[in-house]
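Per your request, structure below.
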């Protein structure tokens, strides 16, 4: 940790209670947060883990209308479903609350009134879309139309999912009401606004110091910088809706607080609820109002603006009016998106799988491990059924499970199922013992830097080394030729099982508890101490329990069944392709295709189509101008590895020199996608 903290406060984004949690949600915010928290608990640090259901906003009301029921019935159902799914997945929240609770409404109302009475909020009359047939103003998600930026015909009134642009419903072309299907009119209404722009300077200072404080992800910083570059604008705090936290003002009591304003306050109200559960109502203040607390907010990249800009600005505004001030996030380690079999999760297309459905067939730890090894920490990633099968069979079963089973089985067969006496250690023994301690240190350092995938790889590599140690020492031979050497080998193997149980606890909480019980150790592995993972702490002569299969291999027919049930990716009316004239292999070999990492990206001034990229190709850095600005925001590309033509003659576009060309694919619908290697290849790598 870059600073010394007495406490750690961890929050995970509040999921909307209008649908079930799917695998993409887990990889984006929840699994990373849980791994980080479990690691901190093993270090015996004072940490609390806060989450809950976001139960207000238009998505809830839309779902209620579609199902012809009430918003309360919707949130009640999905709160319980998601809470149960999280529990089955092994999420270790200290509190999982709800924003529909009176405690939350009181917290949000108090926060709003503090800003209102201080004169911070601005009252504005504005034009808003109005559905004459339904007799109501239309919140943003009640409107669909054509995006003014990328021409996506299915853009929502708040954001275009295709290009990521945040929108005002009035900006949409050809708007349609989702209530009646009619074209809405424009009508005047009154709302209160939060002056986000007034806090831009403070926010820029906050973000500029972020990387020095706790090593923020570059993609998060770039996203924030792009918002600052465009200039922060006032944001409406109230909206014309019936479901939500009622505005506590007589002249505006027919409105509710905008969900962006009240949802982030759910972290505070959830902590208050936890304090009441613990019988200490003021306990929450020790975390939220104490500068010695480290606050880490885990989210997906679609929530960066709310947690890095909007929520900190709200807290800054509160702090200006109070002696007791809220802490700001020390880090917001946002993940990119996880796709499913090469495409975005889509409820409407039936593309993807919900967590509860997955866990009804497969163990939670199998999913936790696969997602961890494929976390979208710096770029979008994919979940593939075949990769899931390979991770379970080749790594969990064949490496970790195999080592535990062969160790305990051998001891039951040859040492009465007891911890054997350790004799004199040789150099190979010392090397493995040293690796136990160094792995704890290395993996721990990576966990602290939010590099969870790399940390898990280090731990699995320890299991690989343990199998090699077992094989190289050949205990089945030394059992007959040198029983003391055999006993020492198996003692070290068993201590390695103990170390692996502790080190894998953040990732495989269910399996490591089984490992702990197999070793017949007292208490729970969840109460173990990370820094003691490498200790030779097992009592010689103590009895072991019988081994059990930790990970069952997944057969091909099981995976093939799931793949066969996927909706078709292909359209039925594809036009025949027209190919360019054939070229000789010698012509293609003249093209030097290389892997490049995008290290900077920004728009080219006075151009709607061009982005200026600074890319690294090995030791070479160069500028590439790409016509992809209508498909990608600059911050979406930073940190990604792309394919470029490295030997293209330099050219000038809009006065900017371009030394290379990136490769992208497009279809007849105008969609464009930059080509990104499936696996991480170092920049400078040759594309063949």
């Amino acid at each position: 940790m870059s600073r010394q903290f007495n406490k750690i406060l961890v929050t995970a984004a509040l999921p909307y209670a209008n649908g079930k949690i799917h695998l993409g949600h887990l990889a984006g915010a929840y699994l990373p947060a849980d791994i980080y928290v479990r690691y901190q608990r093993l270090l015996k640090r004072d940490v609390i883990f806060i989450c809950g259901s976001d139960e207000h906003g238009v998505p809830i009301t839309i779902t209620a209308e579609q199902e012809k029921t009430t918003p309360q019935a919707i949130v009640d159902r999905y709160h319980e479903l998601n809470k149960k799914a999280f529990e089955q997945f092994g999420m270790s929240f200290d509190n999982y609350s709800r924003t529909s609770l009176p405690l939350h409404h009181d917290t949000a109302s108090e926060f709003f009134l503090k800003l209102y009475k201080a004169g911070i909020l601005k009252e504005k009359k504005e034009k808003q879309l109005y559905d004459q047939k339904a007799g109501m103003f239309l919140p943003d998600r009640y409107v669909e139309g054509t995006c003014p930026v990328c021409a996506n015909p299915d853009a929502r009134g708040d954001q275009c999912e295709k290009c990521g642009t945040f929108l005002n419903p009035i900006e949409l072309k050809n708007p349609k009401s989702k209530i009646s299907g009619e074209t809405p009119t424009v009508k005047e209404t009154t709302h209160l606004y939060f002056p986000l722009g007034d806090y831009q300077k403070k926010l820029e200072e906050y973000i500029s110091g972020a990387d020095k404080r706790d090593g923020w992800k570059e993609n998060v910083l770039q996203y924030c910088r792009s918002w600052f570059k465009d200039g922060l604008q006032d944001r409406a705090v109230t909206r014309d809706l019936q479901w939500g936290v009622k505005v506590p003002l007589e002249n505006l009591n027919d409105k509710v607080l905008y969900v962006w304003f009240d949802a982030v306050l759910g972290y505070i109200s959830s902590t208050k609820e936890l304090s009441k559960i613990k019988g200490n109502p003021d306990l929450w203040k020790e975390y939220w109002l104490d500068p010695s607390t480290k606050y880490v907010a885990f989210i997906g990249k679609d929530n960066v603006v709310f947690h890095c800009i909007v929520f900190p600005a709200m807290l800054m505004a509160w702090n200006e009016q109070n002696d007791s001030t809220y802490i700001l996030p020390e880090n917001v380690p946002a993940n990119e998106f996880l796709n499913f079999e090469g495409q975005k999760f889509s409820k409407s297309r039936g593309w993807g799988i919900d967590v509860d459905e997955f866990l009804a067939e497969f163990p939670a730890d199998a999913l936790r491990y696969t997602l961890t090894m494929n976390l979208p920490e710096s770029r979008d990633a994919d979940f593939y059924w075949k990769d899931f099968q390979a991770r379970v069979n080749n790594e969990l079963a064949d490496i970790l499970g195999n080592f535990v089973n062969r160790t305990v089985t051998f001891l039951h067969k040859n040492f009465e199922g007891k911890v054997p006496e350790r004799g004199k250690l040789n150099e190979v023994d010392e090397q493995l013992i040293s690796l136990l301690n160094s792995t704890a240190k290395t993996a721990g350092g990576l966990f602290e830097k939010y590099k969870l995938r790399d940390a898990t790889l280090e731990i699995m590599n320890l299991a690989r080394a343990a199998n090699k140690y077992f094989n190289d020492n050949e205990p089945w031979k030394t059992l007959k030729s040198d029983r003391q050497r055999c006993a020492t080998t198996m003692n070290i193997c068993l201590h390695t099982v103990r170390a692996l149980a502790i080190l894998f606890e953040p990732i495989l909480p269910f399996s490591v508890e089984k490992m702990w019980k197999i070793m017949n150790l007292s208490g729970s592995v969840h109460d173990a101490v990370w820094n003691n993972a490498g200790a030779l702490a097992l009592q010689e002569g103590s009895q072991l329990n019988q081994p059990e299969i930790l990970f069952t291999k997944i057969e091909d027919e099981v995976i093939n069944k799931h793949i066969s049930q996927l909706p078709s990716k292909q359209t039925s009316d594809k036009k025949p392709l027209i190919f360019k004239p054939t070229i000789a292999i010698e012509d293609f070999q003249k093209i030097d295709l290389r892997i490049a990492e995008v290290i900077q990206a920004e728009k080219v001034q006075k151009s709607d189509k061009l982005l200026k990229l600074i890319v690294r190709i090995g030791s070479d850095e160069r500028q590439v101008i790409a016509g992809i600005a209508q498909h990608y925001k600059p911050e979406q590309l930073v940190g990604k590895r792309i394919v470029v033509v490295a030997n293209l003659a330099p050219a000038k576009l809009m006065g900017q020199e371009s030394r290379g060309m990136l490769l992208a694919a497009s279809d007849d619908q105008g969609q464009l996608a930059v080509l990104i290697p499936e696996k991480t290849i170092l920049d400078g790598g040759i594309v063949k």
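The radius of gyration is 28 Å.

Regards,
D.
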